[in-house]
Amino acid sequence: MEKLKRAIPKKPVKLRIKKGDLVEVISGKDKGRRGEVIQAFPKLNKVKVKGINIITRHRKERVRRGADPNDPARVIPGGRIEEEAPLYASKVMLVCPNCNRPTRVGYAYREGEAKPARRKYRVCKHPDCGKEIG
Hints:
This is Large ribosomal subunit protein uL24. It holds the Pfam family KOW. Part of the 50S ribosomal subunit. One of the proteins that surrounds the polypeptide exit tunnel on the outside of the subunit. One of two assembly initiator proteins, it binds directly to the 5'-end of the 23S rRNA, where it nucleates assembly of the 50S subunit. By secondary structure, this protein is an all-beta fold. β2 (34-41) and β3 form a beta hairpin. It folds into two domains: 11-95, Roll (SH3 type barrels); 96-134, no CATH class. The protein is built from one helix and 13 strands. It has one helix spanning 116-119, and strands at residues 22-25, 34-41, 46-49, 54-59, 62-63, 75-76, 79-84, 87-88, 92-95, 102-103, 105-109, 120-124, 132-133. It is elongated and about 60 Å long.
């Protein structure tokens, strides 16, 4: 039987959400909950959010290969381990730190900056806010 490959988007999408951003889940079992992005996967178009999309893995206790026999940390504990699973970036919205509402992300450019990379910054798309997002 042929092994199935993981579905990777043909063309990576520009992630407007970065590590450390506060996001709100807009669909799924955790809808309405907020959390901080702890890891971003631009090639998979996914993000991992602290305390959101918790899964339980059943792991067997095992000994780390090549570890010192007298080292107490050589045994990796087993049991039921709860951890965050990545979720699609389209299921979360960035929360604007100024108006504290979920928002779409736009970009604007500063005038007079030397490097083009420093000119571009993210902005809140709410009409009554429109401020820069850190």
